[in-house]
Amino acid sequence: MSTSENTAFWIVTGAASGIGAAVVRAARHTGVNVLALDVDEAKGLALASETGALFRRCDISDMAQWQQLVEFLNAAKTEFGSPTHIHLNAGIQIAPPDAPLSEYQLEAVTLERYRRMMSVNVDGVVFGLQSLLPLLSPGAAIVVTASLAGVTPYSVDPLYAMSKHAVVGLVRSLAPELATRGINIHALCPGAVDTPIIPHAQKTEDARFMSPEALAIDVIELMTEMESGKSWIRLSETKPRYVIRAPGDKTA
User: Fold this and answer.
1) Can you give the pTM of this predicted structure?
2) What is the pLDDT of residues 120-135, one digit of tens each?
3) Catalytic one of 104, 114, 154, 160
4) Cβ distance 141 to 223 under 8 Å?
């Protein structure tokens, strides 16, 4: 990873696969420094070797590990500078992808699966923001990977939809205060994307999935988007993304 006082410094969670890995590759292609965070050490190290990114194992549901990360960033500030672009991307569904769809329903959910999903999808975003926001300067940008399920019903996995609605609400609600600090925040809400968390039972011959690489382009572009606090929808690779506004949002 290159070193420069004026180089942008990206942090990406859930970076070892799917959208996160695609963002790491796309960001590194532009020459910026990237710190990739994930619990999958083997895939994370392979990605770092491929791209020149720095990988660090981090369970984003654990506040203590975020605090350790902040200590690392403060110690390495002379080398890497302060973070300028944050992509809080890590997310899981309520059941493993090879589980039957019946296990995604409310009645079938175990406490262990529920706690783990909420800790990754919600706590991981909250803890990430609490930890990283004090390090950011005016001009910094944050993109949170939400989901179409964060603004519409998703009967396949209702609790996943609940967690993504929470993320969308957080982004919308934080934006005004962050704007006073010159920091923009965005929620990216894609439809079906071909990532490892998709239930195998949904991958039918008729199903159409976007590529992680297509969503990585959105993440890169949203880092320079000035309309903060919005929910950006992407339904397909052939149609442009658009905003679904919160009730009462009258901004142009």
Assistant:
1) 0.95
2) 999 999 999 999 999 9
3) 160
4) yes
Has 242 been annotated as catalytic? no
Please give, one letter per residue, the 3-state secondary structure of the chain: CCCCCCCCEEEEECCCCHHHHHHHHHHHHCCCEEEEEECCHHHHHHHHHHHCCEEEECCCCCHHHHHHHHHHHHHCHHHHCCCCEEEECCCCCCCCCCCCHHHHCHHHCCHHHHHHHHHHHHHHHHHHHHHHHHHCCCCCEEEEECCHHHCCCCCCCHHHHHHHHHHHHHHHHHHHHHHCCCCEEEEEEECCECCCCCCHHHCCCCCCCECHHHHHHHHHHHCCCCCCCCEEEECCCCCCCEEECCCCCCCC
List, for residues 220-249, the tens digit of each pLDDT value: 999 999 999 999 999 999 999 999 999 988
Q: What is the pLDDT of residues 176-210, one digit of tens each?
A: 999 999 999 999 999 999 998 889 988 887 778 99
Q: For residue 186, what are the CA distances in angstroms to 63, 77, 193, 219? A: 23, 26, 18, 9
148-158 mean pLDDT: 97
Q: The tokens of 70 are what?
A: 């902040």
Structure tokens at 53: 């990114």
Q: For domain 9-244, give the CATH number.
A: 3.40.50.720
Domain boundaries, the chain: 9-244
